[in-house]
Write a structure and sequence with these properties.
Elements: H1 4-31, H2 37-61, H3 79-103, H4 109-130, H5 143-156, H6 158-164, H7 173-193, H8 208-215, H9 217-223, H10 230-249
Helix pairs in contact: 1-2, 1-4, 1-5, 1-10, 2-3, 3-4, 4-5, 5-7, 8-10
Amino acid sequence: MHSHWSLVAFTLLVQTTVGSLWQLFIVLVLISAPLDPHYFEIHISILLLILIISLICAMAHLGKPQKSVYSARNLRQSWLSKEIVSVNIFTGVLAVITAVAALFAGVAQVLLVLCGGLAGGFALYTMTCIYLIKTVPSWNHKGTPLTFIGSTFLLGSLPGLALSLVGENVVSGRIVIGFCVIGLLLKFMAFRFAPPKSYADSQMMLPLLQLLGVGILPMIQLLSSSALYVFPVIMILVGEYFNRRQFYESYRRVGL
């Protein structure tokens, strides 16, 4: 599959945004209190920027980006059209949330994040359905949605960890590790569903680098050094990149 780098970036960045919104929602529910308005505005703004970058990457995959508007015409029959519309709706919802957070400090954050998380969840659903194609056995199995959702949980922890690098320690370590563990479990389960000959090097699909990155998180928390979070962030990012690239390189059409 040509230009898979743009699809790798697009899918991973969208999943990062969705997972981070889910994590923020859990944080708000558990603490039963609003986050610092300044932190909330920064976090949401970063997610919006990530989502915009993902759309730019998606445009790079198209041969003629100026004609991308026509790709959304077949909503009834095409999951690609549904994905295009749902991701753009998600972007619009997140833009509204960002504006509201900037203008109204006392707004109900949990409600805003819930709306964003639901819109993101629908975008993730349409994105996943695109790859469940009968003529591509390497994708058409339960492992595809599992690995996409697993990546959502794993990558969703990274914005919070990245903000910890600059002293914004809001998301608790337990929630970060919980999300990462859920993500890893889903990705290991996904590997079990993949057809034996789906990948040129099947071991690359195992989230071993991500496992190592998550494994050092408890030690970093014991050391109370936010600067060290850069290592698990890099490990998880690099591992997810190689896993997703291998996913696209496994494309083999059979039959029609």
